[in-house]
Specification:
- With 301 residues, this protein is α/β, with parallel strands linked by helices.
- It folds into two domains: 15-59 and 184-296, Rossmann fold (3-Layer(aba) Sandwich), CATH 3.40.50; 66-164, Adenine-specific Methyltransferase, Domain 2 (Adenine-specific Methyltransferase, domain 2).
- It contains nine helices and seven strands; from the N terminus they run αβαβααααββαβααββ.
- Strand 1, helix 2 and strand 2 (53-58) form a beta-alpha-beta unit.
- The longest helix has 40 residues, at 74-113.
- It binds S-adenosylmethionine.
- The site of S-adenosylmethionine has 22 residues, from loops.
Length: 301
């Protein structure tokens, strides 16, 4: 099973390396940087979550709102997406801009003015979120200072806007008993993770240089202090007896936190440098293989 969204930093390319460290046995699965959920859908599709609980979370309210509507209101989402698909066939980039500026952003503003309750994210908003994701520039989700979504149209000849089969499979996986989806910052996993649980951490990657790709998924961004806090959370949960896997860049900040770091070593965490294919980059010449870091206390199979 694969994700129904494109997401910057989506982990489909890295799955072969990550799978090596999936624990054979665990109680609850946690994914606190859900994004498009490549690992969740991989686990669900291979039956590894059968009879288990899964706690999924992310700090992006639109993303979580979209997941909830795909789970609970699939028919309404599909109907709205069908209308967007037909509009796109007629208007393409103009249709994209119209949906973004005259429908999506105004509807989001009203929703945010009313308190941005996640349950009030409508099926229409979810459908527009999927439509803009499938047709916008590199599938990015980015907001400006006033909180409006501002990604330009992408250049796709025939984008696949509606994939009913994929969305239906995703909806079922998300509605399985034991799966919960919440809007939350990553640090809240501390309250939920028990020994013998499995946690996959896929934060916004620390930039390799000051001029590296813009990687802000939320209005707040992800600071160096967040990376350090995340290291503490990973160390705490590994010490608690959970199996943890973290992926990140090989930026000096990250390697300092995990390679040759005493607390990480004492918690049984091992850093592995792996080659990954970077899919989303504005410059085609930078889409080749790059080195990434996987840190885990899991045993390689
Ligand atoms: C690299 S992406 C995850 C990609 C995901 N593994 C996939 O396959 O698509 C990082 C995610 O972290 C989320 N995020 C950013 N800051 C966060 C925070 N403080 N707490 C929780 N999630 C956060 C972003 O919204 C984004 O979806």
């Amino acid at each position: 099973m694969r994700p129904f969204l494109k997401w910057a930093g989506g982990k489909r390319q890295l799955l072969p390396q990550l799978r090596r460290f999936y624990p054979a046995d665990f109680d609850t699965y946690h994914e606190p940087f859900l994004g498009s959920g490549a690992v969740f859908f991989d686990l669900a599709g291979s039956g590894r979550l059968d009879g288990r609980r899964a706690e999924l979370s992310d700090e992006n309210p639109d993303l979580i709102g979209c997941y909830l509507r795909v789970r609970d209101s699939l028919d309404a989402v599909l109907a709205a997406l069908g209308r967007l698909d037909r509009g796109h066939a007629r208007g393409e980039a103009d249709h994209y801009r119209q949906v973004r500026d005259r429908r999506f952003n105004p509807a989001r503003r009203s929703w945010r003015r009313a308190g941005a309750a996640i349950d009030a994210y409508s099926p229409d908003l979810a459908a527009m979120f999927i439509y803009l994701n499938r047709t916008g520039y590199n599938g990015l989700f980015r907001v400006n200072r006033s909180g409006d979504f501002n990604v330009p149209p992408g250049r796709y000849a025939r984008p696949r806007i509606i994939d009913a089969e994929l969305l239906t499979a995703a909806s079922r996986a998300l509605a399985a008993p034991g799966v919960s989806i919440r809007l939350a910052g990553f640090a809240t996993v501390i309250e939920r993770v028990a020994a013998n649980d499995f946690v996959y951490f896929d934060p916004p990657y620390a930039p390799l240089s000051a001029t590296a790709n813009f990687r802000s998924y939320t209005a707040r961004g992800f600071s160096d202090a967040d990376q350090a806090r995340l290291q503490q959370v990973v160390v705490t949960l590994a010490s608690r007896g959970a199996t943890v896997i973290l992926s990140n860049s090989v930026a000096p900040l990250v390697t300092q936190l995990f390679e040759g770091n005493l607390a990480a070593h004492a918690a049984g965490l091992t850093p592995y440098r792996v080659q990954a294919r970077r899919a989303i980059n504005a410059r085609a010449d930078r889409r080749g293989l790059i080195e990434e870091l996987i840190v885990t206390n899991g045993v390689a199979s």
